[in-house]
């Protein structure tokens, strides 16, 4: 999910890099993509499939090989790009009418493509095939419903966030895994979660954040890290806190008519979150955005804890010299935990010269045959409920506690990301607005003015 991040800019914080083409299955490297792709030398139809997560390529290579065995008239060429390059390249290819036949789509991007008729509505094909959409995890199909009621992709995977923590640092602070799973927070005094951060924070002289003489201006280990302000999404920053404080993104989802960035519950949450920076438990925004990644900072011991997505669980578990535990997000004032519950889909470019073959590939990607293969890779949680359960077992086998994420599906405490065709414009308002608040250049109540600007964008539709 997968995402944005799956999962997600659910996934906007991960894996920048140069484009790397991975021509799979037959080992061919095609220069073209999408409508520019031509039939293979053996007269098979060549489909190009784009994805951004390099870690998932092996699983989908196996899916492509299996698909080709059952569909000998089709050749699948997979091309993988880093996150930032992916959307830049895809947008350019859409404009040039040479996009890939099939591509991994994100909930915050698909509204734009659907509004410009750049991806196919597969509703009729789903009906004709008799595909049972109830097989997917709750809510995931709804992410891909257009404003016209059409279905613009099939669910691929899902994600949620959890608390990733350095087990040694937590133990040195006198806390246990049970303590980590029993945390709560509130915007008044921060609850047991803020007390945990204070205890985990250590200054250059070895003084903890809850001890006399702590120097908040010379911190060696921050209780919690983050990568940027989160803009209007905040999936791995403040969203879990705001959502468990009774806030939600908008009046409805998908296709909201008003956002809720001016809600006092959000200002209250952001005010508390910012106070953690002021107290020295979180790094200043300038430090968080200095270019050193959050996972690298966990690996070096600079951060004791992170809110991070399931899509990075495997990468976190593979950090050298650091044992990472995972706990669910803390219980908030609502009495429940919360997480953004995101997902990805596989979409078909409307300009593909091979829509029937592209549909066969998308249908296969969404089937148990492929999603079970992906589940065994223990990288993401597939969208099919049965395959998702396989993935949870696969994660457990390599020592990753997947229940910290699954709890949000089981308890219904996940919130779907907002789906709109104006997300890029919304972020253009909310990113600098949230940056200003977390860098102490503006107060949390300034988000009311930002909210007015966002709603003005929607009113123009």
Automatic annotation (TrEMBL):
GO cellular component: cell envelope
Cell compartment(s), UniProt: Cell envelope
Signal peptide as annotated in the record: 1-39
Record SUPFAM superfamilies: Periplasmic binding protein-like II
Coiled-coil regions listed in the entry: none
Keyword Nucleotidyltransferase part of the UniProt annotation: no
This protein's UniProt keywords: Signal, Transport
Keyword Acyltransferase: no
InterPro entries per the UniProt record, alphabetical: Bact_solute-bd_prot1 (IPR050490), SBP (IPR006059)
Tree of life domain: Bacteria
Sequence similarity: Belongs to the bacterial solute-binding protein 1 family.
PANTHER family: ARABINOSE-BINDING PROTEIN-RELATED (PTHR43649), SN-GLYCEROL-3-PHOSPHATE-BINDING PERIPLASMIC PROTEIN UGPB (PTHR43649:SF31)
Name of protein: Sugar ABC transporter substrate-binding protein
Provenance organism: Cellulomonas pakistanensis
Upper taxonomic lineage: Bacteria, Bacillati, Actinomycetota, Actinomycetes, Micrococcales
């Amino acid at each position: 999910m997968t995402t944005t991040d799956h999962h997600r800019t659910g996934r906007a914080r991960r894996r920048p890099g140069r484009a790397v083409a991975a021509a799979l299955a037959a080992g061919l490297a095609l220069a073209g993509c999408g409508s520019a792709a031509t039939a293979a030398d053996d007269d098979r139809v060549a489909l190009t499939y784009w994805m951004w997560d390099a870690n998932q390529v092996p699983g989908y290579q196996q899916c492509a090989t299996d698909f080709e065995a059952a569909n000998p008239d089709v050749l699948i060429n997979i091309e993988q790009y880093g996150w930032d390059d992916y959307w830049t390249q895809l947008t350019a290819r859409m404009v040039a009418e040479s996009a890939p036949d099939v591509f991994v789509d994100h909930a915050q991007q698909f509204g734009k493509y659907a509004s410009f008729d750049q991806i196919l509505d597969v509703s009729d094909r789903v009906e004709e095939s008799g595909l049972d959409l109830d097989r997917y995890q709750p809510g995931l199909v709804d992410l891909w419903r257009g404003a016209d009621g059409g279905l613009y992709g099939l669910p691929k995977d899902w994600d949620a966030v959890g608390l990733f923590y350095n087990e040694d640092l937590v133990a040195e602070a006198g806390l246990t895994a049970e303590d980590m799973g029993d945390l709560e927070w509130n915007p008044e005094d921060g609850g047991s979660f803020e007390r945990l951060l204070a205890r985990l924070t250590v200054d250059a002289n070895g003084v903890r954040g809850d001890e006399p003489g702590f120097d908040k201006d010379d911190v060696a280990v921050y209780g919690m890290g983050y990568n940027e302000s989160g803009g209007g999404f905040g999936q791995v920053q403040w969203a879990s806190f705001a959502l468990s404080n009774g806030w939600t993104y908008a009046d409805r989802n998908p296709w909201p008519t008003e956002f809720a960035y001016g809600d006092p519950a959000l200002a209250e949450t952001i005010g508390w979150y910012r106070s953690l920076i002021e107290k020295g438990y979180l790094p200043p925004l300038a430090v968080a955005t200095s270019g050193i990644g959050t996972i690298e900072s966990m690996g070096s011991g600079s951060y004791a804890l992170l809110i991070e997505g399931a899509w990075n669980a495997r990468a976190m578990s593979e950090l050298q010299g650091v044992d990472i535990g995972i706990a669910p997000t803390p219980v908030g004032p609502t009495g429940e935990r919360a997480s953004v519950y995101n997902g990805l889909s596989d979409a078909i470019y409307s300009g593909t010269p091979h829509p029937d073959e592209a549909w066969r590939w998308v249908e296969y990607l969404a089937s148990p045959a492929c999603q079970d293969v992906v589940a065994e890779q223990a990288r993401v949680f597939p969208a099919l409920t049965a395959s998702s359960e396989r993935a949870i077992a696969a994660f457990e086998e390599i020592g990753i506690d997947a229940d910290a994420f699954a709890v949000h599906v089981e308890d219904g405490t996940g919130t779907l990301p907002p789906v709109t065709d104006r997300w890029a414009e919304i972020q253009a308002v909310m990113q600098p607005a949230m940056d200003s608040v977390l860098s102490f250049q503006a107060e949390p109540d300034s988000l009311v003015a930002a909210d007015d600007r966002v709603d003005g964008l929607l009113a123009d539709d």
